[in-house]
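Limitations

Structures in this collection are predictions, not experimental determinations, and the ligand pose is part of the prediction. Treat each record accordingly. The example that follows, with iron/sulfur cluster as the small molecule, is included so readers can see exactly what is and is not provided: the inputs are given verbatim, and the output is the predicted complex.
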Amino acid sequence: MRAEREHPAVVRVDRIACSAHGACRAIAPEHLALDEWGYPIPSVVVTDGETAAALVRFCPAAALRRTTPD
Ligand code: SF4
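Predicted complex:
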């Protein structure tokens, strides 16, 4: 499990579901910024598995999904 968490992971923002809470910015400030309306940018983040899991878990709008690279 630990090794899986350390592997690179991709998280995508569902901009329709996102309600601009900004929690993702607090979790991963090195990867995400907020635009002038509070929506995260960019909409695709490559990070470590542990951060990806936290982003998905703590998004209050369930707008973050862990996925695979294109
Ligand atoms: S935490 Fe979720 S709802 Fe809030 S800004 Fe980030 S993606 Fe949007």
